[in-house]
């Protein structure tokens, strides 16, 4: 398998999805609790390696490392941390197209190593192309998620817009509705 270094937006999305499986984001519920959920995550993100016994703990450690990386968007910290992630499983080589670079993964590479390289590539690509200010914490007041914003305008506010953004919109709607009611009015 090869991870193209110019596909940083996809890789940053995988990194964001990985860190947002953490219990801190889901109020104590781990979204990667077992090998089956890790296999589903790998399949969802087109990772052609089957998880093996021991991979789950390694992915949980990787998730914490990537979460720390995203949560501390100092350029030097990001570059050092992402470089360490990409070094785990491969070497930088030219692919068929001499204008593109990719990380070639060694045969027998594990899911944690593949994810490590993907997360590292995503972080390095975003730092280089978009800047360290694209690494953010979720703006939802009750969320502890983090994300890498690869949108063109760079105005993403939520780690999971469909979930966190919706929660904020519903809360704002309810607050407006409550404040618009006349004094003494009670909904039955």
Description:
The N and C termini lie far apart (60 Å). It contains six helices and five strands; from the N terminus they run E-H-H-H-H-E-E-H-E-E-H. A hairpin with a 6-residue loop joins strand 2 and strand 3. The chain is mainly alpha-helical and 188 residues long. Helix 3 (55-71) packs antiparallel against helix 4 and helix 3 packs parallel to helix 5. Helices cover 48% and strands 10% of the residues. The relative contact order is 0.17. The chain has a three-stranded antiparallel beta sheet with strand order 1-3-2, covered by helices on one side. Strands 4-5 form a two-stranded antiparallel ribbon. It has helices at residues 8-19, 35-44, 55-71, 75-86, 111-129, 161-180, and strands at 2-4, 90-94, 101-105, 135-137, 146-148. It has a single domain (2-180), classed as Jann2411-like fold (Orthogonal Bundle).
């Amino acid at each position: 398998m090869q991870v193209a270094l110019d596909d940083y937006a996809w890789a940053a999305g995988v990194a964001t999805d990985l860190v947002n499986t953490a219990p801190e984001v889901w109020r104590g519920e781990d979204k990667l609790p077992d090998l089956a959920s890790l296999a589903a995550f790998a399949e969802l993100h087109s990772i052609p390696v089957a998880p093996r016994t021991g991979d789950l703990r390694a992915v949980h450690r990787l998730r914490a490392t990537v979460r720390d990386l995203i949560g501390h968007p100092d350029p030097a910290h990001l570059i050092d941390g992402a470089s360490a992630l990409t070094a785990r499983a491969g070497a930088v080589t030219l692919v068929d197209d001499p204008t593109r670079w990719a990380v070639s993964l060694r045969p027998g590479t594990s899911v944690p190593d593949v994810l490590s390289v993907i997360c590292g590539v995503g972080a390095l690509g975003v730092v280089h192309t978009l800047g360290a200010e694209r690494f953010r914490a979720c703006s939802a007041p009750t969320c502890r998620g983090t994300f890498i914003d690869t949108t063109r305008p760079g105005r993403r506010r939520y780690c999971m817009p469909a979930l966190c953004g919706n929660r904020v919109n519903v809360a704002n709607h309810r607050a407006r509705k409550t404040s618009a009611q006349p004094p003494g009015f009670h909904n039955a």
